[in-house]
């Protein structure tokens, strides 16, 4: 009789990718030193706050004690944990483990998810190691428990977003990773500057509608984290996997919180912050989708044909520039329609039909830099989005010069020009008809240019559709031509 002795440190229901990352991270000297040095440092600081000087004061006052506590906590959450995650994908990319992952039950998305959850579990362990000192602060007096919990939640939420972004950045060159590390340091200093003024922080929290603020913060954070993790999964995904579908659904979902905010008049003060988030997130996804080199295969069309809404999937959610351009037009149309109906007081002077032409003008302004860079995408590689942004602002600067010269006709011919003119006169000026025709003709020109540049993409699309139709007929028992 054979007896199998098994000692598992993790239960079987935990995903294997999470177990692997937790084991690797918890055994590193950096993590062990962190759990030792940080609590010991805080213990020394708290002991100094109990020692009185000959003047009767303590060596470290209550306000300084709070600053030390939040400073160490924010340093761990916003600098150390994200910088640990900066090396998470380098080994997998160097070993080209994406193909090996496909031989197991793990998918690239589950692998990336396991990495992120592992780092967040480590961050939670660090917070737990600091909880005794937080309790001592609370019994010391002059501490608002509700405000502390809110600030702790915001810190952990910031850590989750930065860690997800670090996992994505970890697959990029060392220069971008260094810039990300610098950015986390700047963000940490900015966050600490608000924590070091407790009276102003408490006044700000009291002025907020906490339920609405938490709802929007959590919703936007989930969307942003999901976007970063889906972008990270691309580092491990083989060309046969379509990674564009889920990623492009996120900008469409981000409009829901804005609609919820406009339904409640007491939440309207959060709309500007929501608009800033939507502008950042949609711009990021659109630029990456328009400038990232991808491989479009017939299998993508075949897989999409087997699912619901297959035509919508094959038009808006396929890899490649043509599908990304169609998706960009769809996103711009939905957001312009939402702006016209949800914020009528801000656009009361502009006729509703002008939003359609504003969408065309914005699409033309967005697609032209991508068309200029399309032949050089593979050579430029990861630098393509950066050069895209530079070209976009060059066009914007030229439009600004023509606008100061009051040459609206020349402005309308340049990308971004029609948008500027339409917004300037709210679609009611004397040259609105000219701008409307300019936006229509420029959009048609951009569409024809797009079709000409991406003819191989359309051939693959046609081939995949033919194979999918033949397989469908075969599954129904109809004879097919060889």
Give structural notes:
With 482 residues, the chain is an all-alpha fold. Helices cover 75% and strands 0% of the residues. Helix 7 packs antiparallel against helix 8, helix 14 packs across helix 23 and helix 17 runs antiparallel to helix 21. The N terminus is likely disordered.
Please give the radius of gyration in angstroms: 27 Å
Structural class of the helix and strand makeup?
mainly alpha
The percent range for strand residues is: under 5%
Oligomerization status of the protein chains: single chain
- End-to-end Cα distance, whole Å, is 59 Å
Portion in helices = over 70%
Give the tags.
482 residues; mainly alpha; 75% helix
Topology, please?
Blueprint lengths: L15 H11 L2 H20 L13 H24 L4 H6 L2 H5 L5 H33 L4 H25 L4 H22 L2 H10 L2 H24 L10 H10 L1 H9 L7 H21 L6 H8 L4 H7 L4 H22 L11 H20 L3 H4 L3 H21 L3 H6 L3 H9 L6 H22 L1 H21 L7
Could you give a quick summary of the protein structure above?
The protein is an all-alpha fold. It contains 23 helices and no strands.
């Amino acid at each position: 009789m054979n007896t199998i002795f098994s000692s598992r440190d993790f239960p079987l229901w935990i995903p294997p990718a999470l177990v692997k990352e937790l084991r690797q991270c918890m055994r590193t000297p950096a993590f062990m030193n962190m759990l030792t040095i940080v609590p010991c440092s805080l213990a020394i600081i708290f002991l100094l706050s109990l020692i009185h000087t000959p003047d009767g004061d303590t060596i470290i006052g209550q306000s300084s004690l709070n600053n030390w506590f939040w400073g160490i906590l924010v340093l761990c959450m916003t600098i150390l944990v994200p910088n640990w995650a900066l090396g998470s994908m380098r080994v997998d990319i160097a070993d080209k483990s994406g193909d090996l992952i496909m031989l197991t039950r793990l998918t690239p998305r589950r692998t990336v998810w396991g990495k992120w959850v592992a780092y967040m579990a480590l961050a939670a362990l660090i917070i737990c190691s600091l909880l005794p000192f937080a309790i001592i602060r609370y019994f010391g007096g002059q501490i608002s428990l509700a405000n502390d919990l809110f600030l702790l939640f915001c810190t952990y939420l910031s850590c989750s977003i930065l860690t997800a972004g670090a996992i994505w950045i970890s697959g990029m060159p060392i220069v971008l990773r260094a810039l990300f590390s610098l950015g986390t340091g700047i963000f940490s200093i900015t966050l600490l500057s608000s924590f070091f003024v407790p009276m102003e922080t408490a006044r700000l929290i009291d002025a907020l509608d906490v339920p609405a603020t938490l709802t929007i913060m959590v919703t936007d954070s989930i969307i942003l984290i999901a976007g970063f993790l889906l972008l990270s999964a691309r580092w491990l995904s083989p060309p046969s996997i379509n990674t564009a579908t889920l990623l492009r659904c996120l900008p469409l979902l981000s409009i829901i919180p804005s609609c919820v905010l406009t339904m409640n008049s007491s939440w309207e003060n959060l709309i500007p912050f929501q608009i800033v988030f939507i502008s950042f997130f949609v711009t990021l996804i659109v630029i990456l989708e328009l400038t990232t080199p991808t491989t479009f295969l017939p299998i993508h069309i075949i897989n999409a044909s087997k699912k619901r809404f297959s035509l919508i999937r094959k038009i808006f959610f396929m890899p490649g520039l043509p599908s990304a351009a169609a998706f960009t037009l769809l996103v711009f149309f939905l957001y312009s329609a939402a702006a016209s109906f949800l914020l009528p007081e801000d656009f009361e002077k502009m006729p509703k039909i002008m939003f359609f032409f504003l969408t065309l003008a914005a699409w033309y302004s967005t697609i032209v830099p991508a068309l200029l860079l399309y032949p050089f995408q593979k050579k430029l590689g990861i630098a393509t989005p950066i050069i895209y942004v530079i070209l976009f602002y060059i066009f914007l600067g030229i439009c600004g010069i023509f606008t100061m010269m009051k040459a609206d006709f020349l402005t309308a011919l340049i990308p971004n020009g029609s948008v500027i003119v339409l917004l300037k006169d709210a679609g009611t000026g004397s040259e609105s008809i000219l701008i409307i025709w300019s936006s229509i003709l420029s959009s048609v020109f951009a569409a024809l240019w797009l079709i000409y540049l991406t003819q191989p993409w359309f051939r693959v699309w046609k081939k995949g559709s033919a194979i999918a139709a033949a397989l469908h007929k075969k599954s129904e028992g109809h004879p097919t031509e060889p």
